Structure formats: structure tokens, C-alpha cells
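check this one:
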Amino acid sequence: VNLEWCFPNLISHDTLNDPSKGYLVNDCCVFGVELFVLGNPRQGETLSWVKQPKNGRYSWKIDKYSSLKDEFLRSPVFTVEGQKWYLRIKN
């Protein structure tokens, strides 16, 4: 578990879209995300860590990413260990 509160691996939008950097290949980018959910002490819920999710991979295909305007995109809802999630990114 990375306990640092920072985003050391973020890249700029210009870098992502620069063909010479190699992040977009055939208008497609694959990346990984570590997501940690911290419980709110004001709520009466218990959060347990999922050591090995049954399905630890989710694919979301965004067609013609580089032609999208400055907007937020939201993935379809998906379920991991009974919890519903979605991804939201800003192009």
C-alpha cells in the first residue's frame, strides 16, 4: 500500500496526446489505476480490503479519444466485490 498522498505518475494532457511519446497507439491508451477507499469516521460502515478481487480488471473502450472535446467522460457502472463503481475522466 502506497501511503503517500500525491500523484507522482500523472502526465499532462499535451504529453498524452503527443504521438512521439508513445502513450496513444492507434488512438488507444491502456493504463492501470490503484484505488484505495478510505472510510469516513462519521459513517457507521466498515470497510475491508479486498486482497484478490475475483475480477481485478475492467476494460472501458473510448473510441476516437483524441478527437473528443474538453469534457468529462463516465464509464458504465461495473461491480467489484458487490460494490458498484464507475470511472470518470476529463479529456
Observations:
- The two ends are 28 Å apart (CA to CA).
- Residues 55-91 form one domain.
